[in-house]
Every structure is written in structure tokens, then in C-alpha cells.
Specification:
By secondary structure, the protein is an alpha+beta fold. The protein contains eleven helices and twelve strands. The protein has two domains: about 5-50, Inositol Polyphosphate 1-phosphatase, domain 1 (Irregular), CATH 4.10.460.10; about 55-325, 3-Layer(aba) Sandwich (D-Maltodextrin-Binding Protein, domain 2). Belongs to the inositol monophosphatase superfamily.
């Protein structure tokens, strides 16, 4: 399958529709128009986009499933964490496996949802800059995927999950020095550097020092998918459907999800335990431009519903005194 691209490029006095042409030579000619005649770069790009891409995974290859194409909508973010990509920092150190910034925070997000219900069905997260070979300076990437459709829930981390569960079972047999801290603050969370002070204060009471900061909505969601943290929480309305759909689909396949933070905080637990999952087919009423597709209530990404309910209970308890003072 060849890669497809359709971009609208504006240059002085001309608008160019940049697309994948029938032949590599035609794509080179088109690319040269927006690359100031740089034929070497144009040829390199054209070669990549015209190549056939083969993707196989034993987990996915082992099942047969048919999904009607006419019910599917798609959200794509070709470069999430664009600033980190432009900056190109390759020497950032991780904090317990989580990178606060750098190329590792860059992701490519593809999310597929049901056009009628808005429920995410399939998701792919490509992390192109996972590790760098110091000799060749070439990067190695990693791709994650998940499928949640009717009774089928599969994802690319299933084999890793079984290994992790065995490791956790063994670790429970031997107490370590960090167990006391983990019992007093059982949750870990990843947040944005721009998170509100009220949320950060409440999180510090719930998570203690197990709060991590990272760039990129896609990368922070991926940290939850990977099991590096329990929760990704963001209270602002500056993430969009293309930021969350892919990870949401993967998390659904894992038994988790992604919910509207504001609605969760306003939810009356006595009225039931239905959680306000994000949906991807409805525009925000009264909004204009890209804000039509913003996650207006903020979000929480999680792997375990039981963990989320406990986390929300603790968060609400610790938000109350702060909100009273403001």
C-alpha cells in the first residue's frame, strides 16, 4: 500500500495542491515547486511516498474481522508535538521512561471512529523517534495499534502485557523500599507543563511525586497505553479530536478509555457509573474553526475503569478545598 498525501500549499501568487501523483517523476516535479527547485530533496521525498509499505503483526494476522467501510470516519494528525519535531532535540533524558520533551515526544496519530455513534474503533500511534543509533545517527521507531469493534478487542501490546503481568506477580512476592510510598500515593499521572495550578495541587495530594510532565498530547496518551503511568489528565480545551482518537481506540481495546474531565467532575455518582467517553462525530455547538473539534471539557486517559473511578474520587476530594478558596 502506498502512502497518500494531499496538502494545500500557499506560496506567493500561487496555490498548489500537493498530492501523490501517478508516477514518482511527477511527484518529484510537484515537490520541487514548493522546495525552491531542490531536486535532491524532492527525489528523496518522492521515493519514500511512492514505496510500498507492508505492515504485519502476528496478533492482527490471527483474526478475521469485517467492518463496513461506509460507517467509518478518520482523524489524522501527521505530526503531533510539532514544536519538538522542529526543535529536533535528541539528547533529552527520560524520567522513569517518560521523556519531558525531545524527538521522542513526536507521534503520528491515526484514529478511526463510527460515524453514527462517534465511538473510536481503531487507532494507530507511530512513534518514529524511539532510540537513536549513535554510530549511524539513524532512528528506530515503534508502532502501536488497537482495534475495538463489537466483541473484538485486540491490540499490539497484548504479548507485552502478559509478560508485564508475570513480572508484576513476581514483584509482589518481594517487598521493596518504594512500596510504602506507592501505598500512600497509588496513582501516577502525566500532565502538560501548562496544566492549571488547581489541578496540579490536587494531583500532588493524590499522586505525591509520581507526576510526570511531557510534551505532546499523543505522546502523553501513549505513556498510558504503554503502562508507564496510570492517568493522563488535561483540564484545558486545547486538544482536538485528532489528538485523542487514536489513543482512545487503543485504550478501549485494552479495557480503558478517554473521558471528558469536566463532565466527570460534575457527575453525580448516585445517578450511575456511566462515564462520559469522548466522541468524535459531533461538532461543539456555537464554536468556529478548529474549535469545533476541540475536547472542550478536557480529558482523562486511563487503562483501568476501576482505577479511574478510584482516582476520580480522590481527585474530587482534593479539588474541593482548593475550589472553595477560589
Amino acid at each position: 500500500m502506498s502512502l497518500l498525501m494531499i496538502w494545500f500549499v500557499f506560496i506567493p501568487g500561487e496555490k498548489i495542491i500537493l498530492r501523490l501523483c501517478p508516477t514518482e517523476e511527477e511527484t518529484v516535479e510537484l515537490l520541487s515547486k514548493v522546495l525552491n527547485g531542490n531536486k535532491l530533496a524532492s527525489e528523496a521525498l518522492a521515493k519514500v511516498v511512492h514505496q510500498d509499505v507492508t505492515f504485519t503483526d502476528p496478533t492482527l494476522d490471527s483474526i478475521e474481522i469485517s467492518i463496513p467501510q461506509d460507517i467509518l470516519g478518520i482523524w489524522v494528525d501527521p505530526i503531533d508535538s510539532t514544536y519538538q519535531y522542529i526543535k529536533g532535540s535528541a539528547d533529552i533524558k527520560s524520567n522513569q521512561g517518560i521523556f519531558p520533551s525531545g524527538l521522542q515526544c513526536v507521534t503520528i496519530l491515526i484514529g478511526v471512529y463510527d460515524l453514527q455513534t462517534g465511538v473510536p474503533l481503531m487507532g494507530v500511534i507511530n512513534q518514529p523517534f524511539v532510540s537513536q543509533d549513535l554510530n549511524t545517527l539513524r532512528w528506530k521507531g515503534q508502532c502501536y495499534w488497537g482495534l475495538s469493534y463489537m466483541d473484538t478487542n485486540i491490540h499490539s501490546l497484548q504479548r507485552l502485557d502478559s509478560t508485564r503481568k508475570n513480572s508484576e506477580a513476581r514483584s509482589q512476592m518481594t517487598e521493596n523500599t518504594s512500596s510504602e510510598a506507592e501505598r500512600s500515593h497509588p496513582f501516577s499521572a502525566v500532565i502538560s507543563t501548562s496544566e492549571k495550578d488547581t489541578i496540579k495541587a490536587a494531583l500532588s495530594r493524590v499522586c505525591g511525586e509520581r507526576i510526570f510532565r511531557a510534551a505532546g498530547a499523543g505522546y502523553k496518551s501513549l505513556c498510558v497505553v504503554q503502562g508507564l503511568v496510570d492517568i493522563y489528565i488535561f483540564s484545558e480545551d486545547t486538544t482536538f479530536k485528532w489528538d485523542s482518537c487514536a489513543a482512545h481506540a487503543i485504550l478501549r481495546a485494552m479495557g480503558g478509555g478517554m473521558v471528558d474531565l469536566r463532565e466527570c467532575l460534575q457527575r453525580n455518582s448516585e445517578m450511575g457509573l456511566d462515564l462520559p467517553q469522548l466522541v468524535y462525530h459531533v461538532e461543539n455547538e456555537g464554536a468556529a474553526g478548529v474549535d469545533r473539534w476541540a475536547n472542550k471539557g478536557g480529558l482523562i486517559a486511563y487503562r483501568s475503569r476501576k482505577q479511574l473511578e478510584t482516582f476520580l474520587s480522590l481527585l474530587i476530594q482534593n479539588l474541593a478545598p482548593v475550589d472553595t478558596c477560589t
